[in-house]
Amino acid sequence: MDQEIRAAVQRYVDGCAAADPALVREAFAPNARMWGYLGPDYVEMSGEDFVVNVVEPAEPAGPDYASQISGIDVTGDTAHAVLEEQGFLGANFRNHFGLVRRNGVWRIVSKVFTTV
Predict the structure, then answer these.
(1) For residue 1, is pLDDT > 70?
(2) Which of 16, 39, 88, 89 is least buried, going by the fewest C-beta atoms within 10 A?
(3) Residue 85 contacts by C-beta under 8 Å, 6 or more apart in sequence?
C-alpha cells in the first residue's frame, strides 16, 4: 500500500518538477485544499488555485530541485505523507499531505506546508 501512496505523491512531484498542470491536477482530489507559510507569509488556496497560480506559470524545475518522501502513515483508506523538497521555485519546503483512497485511487486532499 505504501507504494500506491508513494505513487500518488510522486505524481505531484513529477507535475511540479515538469510544470505540468494536468499531472498536478491528477495528484489532487477535486476539492483539495492547502494552507501554509511562504517564509513569514500565510497562504491558503485550493489545489486548483495552486495549479493555476503556481504550476502553470512556472518553468520546469532545474537541476537544483530534489525531493524525498520522509514518512508515510496509513490508516485504512486514509494516509499522511511527508515530502521534503529542495530548490522548488527557489525555496525548500516541508509538505504534509493528507491522502484519501476513493474508488481504489489515492489522491491528495490536503497539503500543509512551510518553507524550511
Answers:
(1) no
(2) 39
(3) 13, 16, 65, 66, 67, 92, 93, 94, 95
